[in-house]
């Protein structure tokens, strides 16, 4: 009996010794890992912490935009590689008739003029600049905005919204109004003709004698990306993130580009609503489910792992 007790005590001591050894090895490995990361940051001239955010958390914000660009810029390759359909779904007009009893874009564009064409073109031209300039604007104005989070959030949420949109357009291509209203098919259903995809903005090109919109849209890798509208989604990202001038101007911007999308026959109303809803749900998930940039007591939550390092 006493002999069994000694064996049990000896076994416990061996177990405790092994646990202590394993813990020491793990701590040593973690210390070596953190040291290697800090050395890499120094080698690359990268700060280990940026505005209370670990550098790896800052880089995390860039992943969704990088994913979006990888899909968007090589859209034809992914269509081929994944075997995705290149034939668009052309039934958005009939769906709108069932939902609204009309096609709102046709009502909005019933009256056109050179002045209205120019007004509609402005938010479309600004859109391409905003995607590039808004995150840097948030970074430059991080003190006025309260922290670096708006810049990180604009990259993270904006990238997710763009990625989900382009994935939808990859697996569920939808024809925009300009295509459905111009496409001509033969008796076998083969496409014979379709208009240029600058749609109503061809009037702007003709008015100013410069093929600006034609050049931009002829180079776009996506032809059938009506739903959801990214032209509406990204200004909504900015509005929900903290508008760059004021919330009133941000709301005006969203309304203006929504009108321009319908007026120019680039999108249906259901595309516009889809852009709103996609952005809204992305921000709900960000605030209610997982926010990798959330701060606690003025410090990034993810920085707690750095405290043990003495950073």
Describe this structure in words.
The structure is a single chain. It is built from 16 helices and 6 strands. It has helices spanning 2-43, 55-60, 63-73, 75-82, 92-100, 104-108, 114-140, 142-145, 149-171, 177-180, 202-208, 212-218, 230-242, 247-263, 269-288, 304-307; strands at residues 49-50, 53-54, 184-185, 191-193, 295-296, 299-300. α7 packs across α9 (149-171), α7 packs across α14 and α9 runs antiparallel to α13 (230-242).
- The shape is globular
How many alpha or pi helices? 16
Q: What portion of residues belong to β-strands?
A: under 5%
- Largest β sheet strand count, sense and barrel closure: 2 strands, antiparallel
Class inferred from helices and paired strands: mainly alpha
Compute the number of strand runs.
6
Q: Estimate the mean pLDDT confidence.
A: 79
Helix-residue proportion:
55-70%
Low-confidence runs of at least 5 consecutive residues? 33-37, 43-49, 296-311
Biggest sheet strand line-up: 1-2
Provide the succession of SSEs.
Answer: HEEHHHHHHHHHEEHHHHHEEH
Q: Supply Rg.
A: 27 Å
Distance between the termini: 54 Å
Write the topology of this structure:
Layout: H1 2-43, E1 49-50, E2 53-54, H2 55-60, H3 63-73, H4 75-82, H5 92-100, H6 104-108, H7 114-140, H8 142-145, H9 149-171, H10 177-180, E3 184-185, E4 191-193, H11 202-208, H12 212-218, H13 230-242, H14 247-263, H15 269-288, E5 295-296, E6 299-300, H16 304-307
Antiparallel strand pairs: 1-2, 3-4, 5-6
Primary descriptors:
about 300 residues; single chain; two-stranded antiparallel ribbon; disordered C terminus; mainly alpha
